[in-house]
Amino acid sequence: MQGFPPSGYFYIKSLKNGSVLDVYNGETSADTAIIIWPQKRNDNENQLWRCEDGFLINKKSNLVLDVRGGDLKSDQSIVQYDRKMTAAHNQRWGYRDGFICILADPRLVLDIKGGSDRDGTKVILYSRKDHDNENQKWIIEPFGAPPPPAGGFGGYGPPDDQNPVYQNQGYQNPVWAAYPPPAYAPIPYEQAESAHKEVYHERKAHLSHQVIAGAAAYQAVKSYIRHQEREGKEVRFEFAKKAIAALAAAEVVKLAEEHDWSGDKKEQATREAERAAEQYLQREVPRSY
C-alpha cells in the first residue's frame, strides 16, 4: 500500500498487536503523547486521523502528528501539536509498504517503544529496520470499514496497483522510489489570516505555494467583501464565487512574479487559490439554497 487515503478518517493500526494510534487520555492539548491503545468503535474520535498534504490530523483535537522538538533522530517522542505552515519538516508523513515515515527522512519511521504490546505504550520515531520490524508496521483502516475477519487484518480492498484510491499518493524521495505527489488541499480557513500576514505584511521568502495560494485567496475574499460593503451591495455566494476566484488567480500571478516561480508552480498555485477562495467565501458568506 502506498499513501494515505485522500479523504475521510481512518485508524492507524499496529500490525504487531492490533492496537491503534491514540492520544494519551484523549487530550486535546498540544504536546500530548501519542500511544497505542485497543481500537474503539464508539467514543473514538481521538483514535481517528485524516491526511491533508502529508499532515496526519486527529479528529478530536484537530492537532497533527509531530516529532517532539523537531529533532529528526531515533528515539524521539511522537506527540500531537499545532499544525505549522512553515518549517513543518517534523509534521509531514508518508506511508509505504506498511511503514509510516517522516517525509524529510524516510529512514525514520513510527515505532512502538520497546516493541511492547502494553496498552499506553508510547509511539516514537526510530530508524527503519529491515527485519524483526512488526512494531514498525501499520495498517490503515478506513473508519466505517467492516471489521477484519477473525485471525487476520485482511479485507482492505484490492492490491495497491489495482486500487485507484491509493494510486498517485506516494512521495518523491531518493531513499524510496519516486511516485507522483498528491494534490494539495487548501490550507484551513483558520490559518489563512496568518498566511496572509506572512505573505503580504512580513514578506517572508521561501514560502510554500500552498501558503501563498491560501494568502491570495484570503486577500481576494476580504477585498471583494470590503468592496461590496463600500458600494452598499449584498454579498451573495452564488454571484461572488466566480469574481473572487478571478481575483485570487490575479493575486497569484502577481505573487508568482515576486517569487520568480515557474509556469507549472504558478498554475498549481492558481488552482489551489481558486479552490481556497470558494471555501473561504463559504465561511464568510454561507450558501443560500
UniProtKB/TrEMBL annotation:
UniProt domain Ricin B lectin: residue ranges: 7-141
Region (Disordered): 257-289
Domain of life per record: Eukaryota
InterPro entries to which the protein is assigned, alphabetical: DUF3759 (IPR022234), Ricin_B-like_lectins (IPR035992), Ricin_B_lectin (IPR000772)
Pfam families from the UniProt entry: DUF3759 (PF12585), Ricin_B_lectin (PF00652)
Start-end of Basic and acidic residues biased regions: 257-277
PANTHER family assigned: CIPC PROTEIN
Name of the protein in its database record: Ricin B lectin domain-containing protein
